[in-house]
Design goal:
Elements: E1 9-10, H1 13-22, E2 25-31, E3 36-42, E4 44-48, E5 51-59, E6 73-84, H2 92-95, E7 101-116, H3 119-134, H4 148-155, E8 158-173, H5 180-192, H6 197-205
Antiparallel strand pairs: 1-8, 2-3, 2-6, 4-5, 5-8, 6-7, 7-8
Amino acid sequence: MPYRPAHDAVDDPEVLLEFIARHPLATLVTHDGTAPDADLIPLLAHRGSDGLDLIGHVARANPLWERPQVGPVLAVFGPVDHYVSPTWYPSKAETHRTVPTWNYLIVHARGELEIHDDRAWTRAAVARLTNAMESGRDTPWRVGMAPKEYVDEQLGHIVGISIRITSLVGKFKVSGARSEDDRVGAADGIEGDGGPPELVQAMRLRLRP
């Protein structure tokens, strides 16, 4: 994330990990030395004894797991976003020095991709991801609720992946460079448009470390 002004930068790992937990469907950007590619893959952050990993799985038919990778991969979580109209800024009535923009919350994780063509590892990863997604439901589904032979069959169609995180950064563009009145006006406008409540809340609280 080369452009990250100080008023937009978020580096608190707990804030970033909470965002990942709320938005686990990542765009995983890889490069095989010829061209970049991108896959949508649910990834779960897992803190182990020796570091922080993202874990998930891909279809065995997906060439990603067999394709050689050049350099680190990039997992993009989000954005949570909405257009910002200049008409929402109170300062427009005073100076008219306003232009449209876009506010958003986004997190980038970089690291080394590791392939786990191992059913036991992949089953554990699927169980962790499922438990995280099902938590909070009145009757959460668990992998063990499906017939064992069916689970074994399905595991044969996927391959586990993990990414050892080497860089974790966020950019919460929440009108942080504007006045308090303009930021509140933009938050009110996004809320009135039916925009993402999470973005509205971040703008009102100005969530930053």
